[in-house]
């Protein structure tokens, strides 16, 4: 494998990350270069897998293609594909278990087979596959000192996915997908018609408050794992990602819970404030907080 191929692949992965994962790209700048490149490569692959279902008319075939791509990434056969070279090098350098990527593809495949969920356990299982395993992959790149960090990494991925779900309720419904627990919707007196009508009601607000509170509680638990990560730079990135992403929940609240009018986001100024606070917290910490 010539050096210029993975380098070109890293640049491709960086461009994909910068375009599609602005929060992660913003935080990742604090990683050292090798870890940053590996993180971009992983994100690029995960993005391609996700797009295989969301942007393709033939998701089954596209996912099969991604599985073949993954096969090649774990093989030593020669290739001139720059992105494949970059991903392969990242996998080798950080000893990333293939099962994580297989689980991701299995989770994304659920989108082709399932668009309604009976309860939170089903939502959590789905979130584990499409986001929790990404937490495990990133943890492998960051490095960690305690196996307990793995559970926390999965929880952080799940919390982020739950945040995505709440932010994108309207957007997902337009694709005939409802990633909300049916039994909890019924508990708050909601039906699919309430989502379709896109009108804010007290019932919707109460339902969102309940969902936000649970997502926040998972963030709190997951952050315990940050202090089991090796190196302050990696801890900084993990904690910044958690805090910035959790702020999307705050943005929903600040928008009076109206998830129908616009897709909420966290502004650059707010991100900088969060990052400054996280930087201070991580740099002043000499040991794992209780």
Question: What's the short version?
Answer:
The chain is mostly helical and 290 residues long. It contains 14 helices and no strands. Helix 1 (4-20) crosses helix 3.
Shape: globular
Summarize the helix and strand pattern as letters. HHHHHHHHHHHHHH
Q: What is the end-to-end distance?
A: 46 Å
Helix vs. strand class = mainly alpha
Characterization of the model:
The chain has 290 residues and is an all-alpha fold. The chain is built from 14 helices and no strands. It has helices at residues 4-20, 22-28, 33-54, 59-73, 82-94, 98-113, 120-142, 148-167, 169-173, 182-187, 192-197, 202-222, 232-254, 268-284. The longest helix has 23 residues, at 120-142.
List descriptors.
290 residues; mainly alpha; 14 helices; globular
Can you lay out the helices and strands and say which pair or pack?
Blueprint (H helix, E strand, L loop, with lengths): L3 H17 L1 H7 L4 H22 L4 H15 L8 H13 L3 H16 L6 H23 L5 H20 L1 H5 L8 H6 L4 H6 L4 H21 L9 H23 L13 H17 L6
